Each structure stands twice: as C-alpha cells, then as structure tokens.
Amino acid sequence: MNSRTLIxxxxxxxTLVVAVYLIVVSGQPPQAKRSHETPPEPAPPGxxxxxxxxxxxxxxxxxxxxxxxxxxxxxxxxxMDATEVTNAQFKEFADATGYVTVAERKPRIxxxxxxxxxxxxxxxxxxxxxxxxxxxxxxxxxxxHPLWTYQLxxxxxxxxxxxxxxxxxxxxxxxxxxxxxxxxxxxxxxxKWAGKRxxxxxxxxxxxxxxxxxxxxxxxxxxxxxxxxxxxxWQGEFPYENKNLDGFPGTAPVASxxxxxxxxxxxxxxxxxxxxxxxxxxxxxxxxxxxPQGPEESFDPNEPGLPKRVQRGGSFLCNTNYCTxxxxxxxxxxxxxxxxxxxxxxxxxxxxxxxxKAL
Length: 359
Description:
single chain; paralog of FGE (formylglycine-generating enzyme); 11 strands
C-alpha cells in the first residue's frame, strides 16, 4: 500500500463521521440535496419553480411550542404562485364560475358551533365577515387570555372580498391587492378551478426560506436590513399605534417588496395564507420526513371544539409585541369556513407525472 492510498483510508472514516455528525445535529446534510434543479417543464403563468430538497423545518429557539421540534423534511419540487392571489384573479374565477364565497352567503343556525346556537335570533344571521376595529372603542383591553385579541374584531354585515372594509368599500382601486375575506373552502374552490392546489405547510415554509438554512425571515435574519422595511406589517405598539413606516396601513399591492431567492413575493406579511394541512400543535414531533401532508384531524387546545387549518406568513396586522407571524417558521390556524380581513392565499402545482415507457 503506497502512502497516498494509506492517507485515503485514514481520512475516509473521519469524513464519514463528520458527515453523520452534521446530519444528526442539523437535521439535514451539509448541502441540501435538490431534485430537478431546472424546471421539468415550462412555467405555468405567474408561477415559479421551487426545486425539491431537504431542509430543517421549525425553530427550536422559538417561544412558540408549536414550532418545535425542528425536524428534517424532504420535499419534491413544485410550482408556486409568485404572489398571493389578487382581487383581479379571484374576480376572474368568480365571474367564470358564479362562485359565491362563504362571507357572501347567509349563515344558518345549523352551521354554528353547538355552543353558540342557543339564543341566536335567525334575523341576526346576515352575510358578512370579521373586520379589525383598529381601536378598542375606548374600553380597556383584557389581556389575561390567549385569545384576548378577539376583542379587536367585529362581525361586519356586508363585508366580503368585494367589499373588504364593509358594504360601502370597494376593490375597484385594489385589483392588484391580495384578495381577503377568503376562507379555506373558498381557496380550495379557486385552486381546483385553476388546476392547482393549496400548499402543504412544509412546502410553504421551505419555499419561504428561499433555499437557505435557518433564516428568520425570507430575506435573512435582520427585520430591517440597512433600515429598509422588507414586508408589510404593523409598526408600533399593537393595537394602539401603527406608525405605518412601511407605507401601507392595510394590504399592499402584491410584489410591493423584494422577492426572496426563489422569486416569491410577500412570503412575510401582507396577508395570512391558507395551507392544505389540518392544525395540531404537536405534529412536528411525529411528522414524516418525506412530503408531510399534516395530521389526519385537527386539535387546537385554545378552542378544542373547532377544527382548524394551518395559515402561514403573517399579515399587515402582525407586530413585534404580540404577533410575530411574519417569521418563516411561524404558524397560525383558522376554522376552514371563516374568512378574515387579513386572510388570503396562494397556490402550488406539482409537475405532471409522465407515464413510464415500457421496456
């Protein structure tokens, strides 16, 4: 055995030990392996290719337990809408299909949770949606409950995606803004019509990270690099003062801020985005490694009787003193039949599987 061969045999075991150590500690190989580095087919209009790969999902340093444990996930490549679905795009769908969103339909008593049905006057069941009040009407806020922010919301008759602030408002000057007051069921209907689907929670977080490991935000670890606002959020003490330093007190036109390195806009802030998954706070502890689809059913310990779907990305109401949902790993949830003033979505699409040729 010559000296070069001897050195190789001495170094090889050490290299393997280091590689195994990195996989165990970081939850992924030193270089995330990606499939389909180049798109397998031409891009669908308005979508960008997200190459498959392995990443570390979640954040062990987060104060929120449902973002733990950080765990390794491997995903196939997929297409993703470069922006949130806009009012113009959703109008095209509604005009083509005659679809009526849940917020535009009159609620029925049987659709309410059983705990809320007693004493409800059917005359009070009117079309509408929840809007943020911006101030607690001079009343002191009671903050001794995890759901204290419910005090800041009101059910507004006539509020829906066509009238975001109530019946007197319009989207005529907001066609390039993300559509809001969209519930999970509405988003599903649009996605099916468009030949797409909602992203899994794992796909959403992987895409938000832009191919980088461990980033707090889609662009890096600083919220305002060089003093520049990179997303549409709430600046100031929530809910008392919004300094509006980013220039948008409500929704912003999509793509108003720079994209991440995958070419995706508004993966942080602007509006919450629906994901396909049911929500449970402990799913990460037993999540499959390969293409996780979420739990089979939902459980929210704060509202045990209400099934929830996952929401991601934060909104223009997220802030530093209460909601930091604009972080890549942050999780939120909502009932599938509830649309809100700051909730929208974007879609994904998997490549078509081509039939294998017979040998």
